[in-house]
C-alpha cells in the first residue's frame, strides 16, 4: 500500500505536469497566432536603400578595424 506522503508527491507531480502542459500549449498557441498575423500583413522593408548602404559601410569599417591587425600579421608571415 502506498503511503500518504507518496500519494501526495504523486498527486503533486501529476498536477505540476498538467499545469506545465497547459502553459506550454497556451504559449505555443500564442506564438502560432502571432506568426499567422505577421505573415498575413504586407511586408515592408525595415531599412530604406540609403540606410542599408550606410549600415553596410559601418559594418565593413568595424570588421576592418577589428580584423585589420590580424590580417596584417598573417600577411607579414606569408599566409
TrEMBL record:
Domain of life from the UniProt record: Eukaryota
Record-given protein name: Zinc finger, C3HC4 type family
Amino acid at each position: 500500500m502506498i503511503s500518504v506522503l507518496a500519494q501526495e508527491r504523486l498527486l503533486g507531480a501529476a498536477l505540476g505536469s498538467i499545469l506545465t502542459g497547459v502553459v506550454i500549449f497556451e504559449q505555443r498557441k500564442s506564438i502560432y497566432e502571432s506568426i499567422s498575423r505577421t505573415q498575413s500583413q504586407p511586408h515592408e522593408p525595415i531599412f530604406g536603400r540609403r540606410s542599408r548602404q550606410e549600415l553596410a559601410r559601418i559594418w565593413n569599417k568595424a570588421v576592418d578595424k577589428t580584423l585589420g591587425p590580424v590580417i596584417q600579421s598573417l600577411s607579414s608571415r606569408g599566409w
